[in-house]
Each structure stands twice: as structure tokens, then as C-alpha cells.
Amino acid sequence: MPKLKVDGIEVEVPQGATVMQACNAAGKEIPHFCYHERLSIAGNCRMCLVEVKPGPPKPQASCALPAADNQEVFTTSPMVKHAREGVMEFLLINHPLDCPICDQGGHCDLQDIAVAYGKGHSRFDENKRAVTDKYMGPIVKTTMNRCIQCTRCVRFAEEVAGVEEIGAIFRGEDMQITSYLESAVKSELSGNTVDLCPVGALTSKPYQFEARPWELRRTPAIDVSDAVGTNVRLDARGRQVLQCHPVINDDVNEEWATDKTRYMIDGLVRRRLDRPFVRREGKLQPVSWPEAFDVIADMAAQAGGSVAAVAGDLVDCETMYAAKLMLGSMGSSLLEGRQTGLDYDTSSLAAVNFNTTIAGLERADAILLVGSNLRWEAPLLNTRVRKAIKRGAKVFAIGPEVDLTYRVEWLGDDLSLLGSLPSHVADLFERAERPTVIVGAAALKGGHGAALALAKRFNLVREGWNGFNVVHMAASRMGGLILGYARPGGIADLHYARLTFFLGADEVDFSRFTGFKVYVGHHGDRGAAAADVVLPGASYAEKSGTYVNLEGRVQRGERAVFPPGDAREDWSIFRALSERLGHTLPFDSLPGLREHMGQNVPQFAKLGLLSFDWTPPSLSESASGAVGRYPIQDFYLTNAICRASPTMQRCSAELIHGESFAEAAE
């Protein structure tokens, strides 16, 4: 491990570390634009110059210079100061004076570094060059006059997103960053380029001219658009969430977020349920809370113990726990969370968990995808597979062929292949140190037992490694399974319940339910349209909630804004309703509910990664038939919030269905 001095401070860094990393280890800030720790080194901007001895008598780019023994690095010498001022002066030659109208203002690297390391004046008075704005789709707004050619967006698109649709054309002063043929970038992760851009060249199109950073109130939250559990920060002004940014968590989402995570938030203020409704003479009529509770109480008296609850994809654990207790007090245990009709064995949570863990997937050396379009079902898992490939992993897949952004050997779409893998695949898995099988929802029902047989055949579960994984797509799924929201017959076992509560469940086939339907949710979507009583609840941004992601990690988000109108937090609705039904729940506050939940369900007593014992069920090892189509057919419209979002609707129309949109010239 190299030892060197940085401004007189001796530091020791890992082999292969750069001088910039050594400076950071010594507590010295090095200004930079093009360098990013999760991207390859470009060395474009030259802002990270330092003086190094022994070495040539000129400043050197610390981001691209390997740290070595006996180096002496100076970060504040007159040479370094003069060099940084010169680089800053060059970068600003063509930069327009857009700060008063630029959405990057207030959190702009160029502003901050110019103030801290630049000169107070420029010696250049030539005309600034002009570059036409490029079209990159409904997510990214471009103002290419501001671009400093750091190429962060280019490297991200190629290395992380796997979509090589952004690049540079021309040379020298004429160099421009653009998308391929100036068309929309077809990536589920394109919004990350806005965060990566150190200037205002790439900004958020849905957010443009909305607010300044200092106007916003920041709240930590957990994303519910998929089961990854992306850590996010919701930025709100007044009672509206205006921005959603990822929060760094190397175990879960690193520092990325999908476009759905970022931009479905404009659906939080549209199509909202803000008062209770009761269906009378075929039409939903607004009523007061007591009136709605009276109607439900009358039906509960008639239903007896024939009461069920169906949990939707976006529901928090507190809501499911409160509903479960209320149904238990009414003598019912009819609970189900797999609203689309999935039916698989849940007797062992380890057999339906992502056991390798999200971060651990990078270490896999042989990967078999079974019935999973990982790019749409869990895009941030897909980025981990790309990192595993860079380390030498081979990827095989069973299912209909799709573009996963990396090279895959498709074996076919018949589940019988699980019992008769090609010899070269079987040989590789037998030799692999960290073999991994990832089972998606399209294969879970028919191929669960056969996939578990592979786990035994290839010794996927061994000391320090568990390579058997199931990909869930709902933020509520693992929490629901822990709470018992799964029945052997699936949702079909609940069709004949006389009273059914739908907890934000909008993907259900409501025509099969013959009894009285109560919808508790936040959007006027399919569930509200089919319900006999609608009780307005709170979205994930309007309540504190606990969620368990697909790897069994318990996480908690906080409330960013209040629900609209007469809407209430879902758990409090069940607490009030239980009192009306004569079975008052044993808590009257959120802390009380969490304490009660932690006592009765130990998995929720603390945050962090849960450990499930590997005790797989004995299932039939035979599997046959085609995988069929993947469950997600439109990545941008998977839940009620997305369907209410104008941004997600346009993404779906343009990126999935190929519609074209004309934009006025500016």
C-alpha cells in the first residue's frame, strides 16, 4: 500500500488508488468536474491539478495520476492556485451568463468552484460560441451552451445504463454532446444524467422553472415504484413534492434512481381521492367519514367472518399490520398481497427472497435469469449484473428474448430447460465459485420447484454465499409475506368473501369479487372505480412508513407533505374503523403501532437486513411449458401514481409506443 504526503500529512492508500483519492483521505478537497467515483476516469476538465514531487515542474491531474510511495503532493501551492484559476478562466470563456434563470442555480458545481477557486475577472472578451440545444426525450432538458464537455453523461450512459445513445461529435471548439440522431434516450435511468451534470447543460424537464433549492423542504423516504427500496430524498414546497433525488446507499441503490422513481411524483397531485365516497344507485357519492363507516359496519355485521383484505403494491407495513389486526378481531385471516393472481409457495421466506443481496450480486461469476426481464422489473439490479459482467461473469437466460443492455446467452423460453441445461452451462455452474440463479415472476408459479432443484444441484447455498434469488416487483411484497399476506390458493381464494378491503390494490380483476368492496387508497384509479365504498388514504410521500425490499432489508421513510383534503394515513383509518366496529385496535399513535408491531413481528423491531434460514420447501422438481410474457409490459405505467403522472404518460407514449412529440423552438 503506497505511503505519501499530502500537504505534509502522511497517508496510506490502497494499491491502485489515485492521487485525488489520497488527497481526499488526507481531508483535502480537490475541485473537479469530469471525475466521478462510479465512472471511468476521463481527465477532461483539468480542474483537479496538484503539484507532485518528484515529477515534472508543472501541475498534474490528480484524478488520473496513480498514488506512489514517497510522493509529495501540494494542493494549495502558488503553482496549483494559478493553474486552477487559469483552467476556470478557460472553462468560462464560452459559458453563458444564465445563472439567474438556470435551474442548476443554487446547487451548481460550476458556481461553487468558480467562487472558491476562480478569478474575479476574465481576460477574454471574444464572442461566446453558441450551440443548438439537443432533444433527449421527455426527461432531460438541454441547454448545450452551458456544456463544458466533461462527458459524465456519455460515460454514465455507456457504463452504467448500458445504452450507448449519448456521445460527442466534432472536435476542439466545435465539440458537442448529443444523443444519437438527436432522438430521445431510451433508458430507464436517463434522469441520473441530470444529477451527474456539473453545470446546467442537462436539467430536469418536468421541474424546469419550478423552484430554487433554498425554497424546498427535504425529507428522507423510500421509493415504492419497485421492490429495490431505493433510498430517496423528497423535496417539497408547501403541500406539493417537486423533486425526488436518490440518496447514497451502497448496499441498495448506490447513488442512482430510475426515471420512474424520480418523475412519477407529479402524479401525487393529480386524480387524488380527498374525501370518502359511497356507491348509491350505481354512482359514487361523497359522504362524511362517519357515514362511510356506518355503511361498512352494516356490511361487516352481515358478512360475519367472511372478510378479506388485499394489499396493493405500494402499501407500507404499518397499514398491512393494522388491517390484519382488524380482520383478526373480526374472526378472519383472509389476507393476500399478490393482487395480480400469482400463486407460489411462501412457507419459506428464504425461498422467495433475493438472498445474494443487491450489492452481493456484483460478485457473482455465473448468472442464470429465469423468466425475468430484469431491466424493467428491477433496473438497479440490472446495473449490478453489468458490474458483475465487467468482473468476468457469464449471463444466461430462459425466457422471451429482450434487450437487457448486456450480452446474454438465451437458452430458450421453455421451463423444462431448468431440468436439462446445456452441458456448457451446467459445467460452468458446477465450476463457478459464486453461481447465481435469479427467478422472475413469469417463471415463479411453474418453475419454483425446478429452480430450487438447481440450487441443490449446483450447491448455490454454501459457506458465505447464497445464490438463489427471487425478484419481486412490489414494494409491499416482502413485508406482506412476513405479515402473512399470502394464501395457498392465491387471490382466487378470496373471490367469494362477502366483504373485501383493498389496500391500494388497483391491479386486481375486480369482476371476480362478488361481495362488498371497500377501497382504501390515494388515487382515483381502477380500485376506486370498482369499489362500493372509497376511503381516501395517504401516498408514500404523505406518511411515515416501513418497507421491506426484495433482499429482506427493513427500511423506513418519513412524511414529506400532508394528504389532501379529508384523506388520512391508512393505519389511522383502520384504527378509527375498528372502533366503529367494536373491536378497537390496541394503539392510537404511529409510535404505539410500531411498538406493537415490533413486539408481535420481531422482524420489524429494528431496521436493517433480515436473515432467513435456508429451509426450502419440498416442491415438484418438474417444470414444463413456455415462460410466457413478462408481467411488466409498460415500464412507465405500473401503478396508480404513474398512471396519474403526465411525465410518465409521455414517457410511455414516446419511449414505449413510439409516438412523436413536436416541441416549439426556443
Structural notes for this entry:
There is one protein chain. The relative contact order is 0.12. It contains 18 helices and 29 strands. It is globular. With 666 residues, it is an alpha/beta fold. Helix 8 (317-329) runs parallel beside helix 15 (570-580). Strand 3 and strand 4 form a beta hairpin. The strands form 8 sheets. Strands 14-13-26-25-24-15-16 form a 7-stranded mixed β-sheet. A 5-stranded mixed β-sheet has the order 2-1-5-3-4, sandwiched between helices. The protein folds into 4 domains: 3-91, Roll (Ubiquitin-like (UB roll)); 99-204, Alpha-Beta Plaits; 307-341 and 476-609, Rossmann fold; 355-470, 3-Layer(aba) Sandwich (Dimethylsulfoxide Reductase, domain 2), CATH 3.40.228. The model has no long low-confidence stretch (mean pLDDT 93).
Gyration radius, rounded? 27 Å
What form results from the Cα inertia axes? globular
SS-based structural class?
A: alpha/beta
- The CATH topology assignment of the largest domain is Rossmann fold
**Name of the level-1 CATH class of the largest domain:** Alpha Beta
Q: Number of helical runs?
A: 18
Compact overview of the structure:
This protein is an alpha/beta fold and 666 residues long. The chain contains 18 helices and 29 strands.
Indicate the topology.
Blueprint: E1 3-6, E2 9-12, H1 19-25, E3 49-53, E4 60-61, E5 72-74, H2 78-91, H3 109-117, E6 140-142, H4 152-161, E7 166-169, E8 176-179, H5 192-196, E9 202-204, E10 217-222, E11 231-237, E12 240-246, H6 259-263, E13 277-280, E14 283-286, H7 289-303, E15 307-311, H8 317-329, E16 334-336, E17 366-370, H9 374-377, H10 379-390, E18 394-398, E19 409-412, H11 423-431, E20 435-439, H12 441-457, E21 461-462, E22 465-466, E23 468-470, H13 477-482, E24 499-503, E25 516-521, H14 526-530, E26 533-536, E27 545-548, E28 553-557, H15 570-580, H16 590-600, E29 608-609, H17 640-643, H18 646-656
Parallel strand pairs: 1-5, 15-16, 15-24, 17-18, 17-20, 18-19, 20-23, 24-25, 25-26
Antiparallel strand pairs: 1-2, 3-4, 3-5, 6-9, 7-8, 10-11, 11-12, 13-14, 13-26, 21-22, 27-28, 28-29
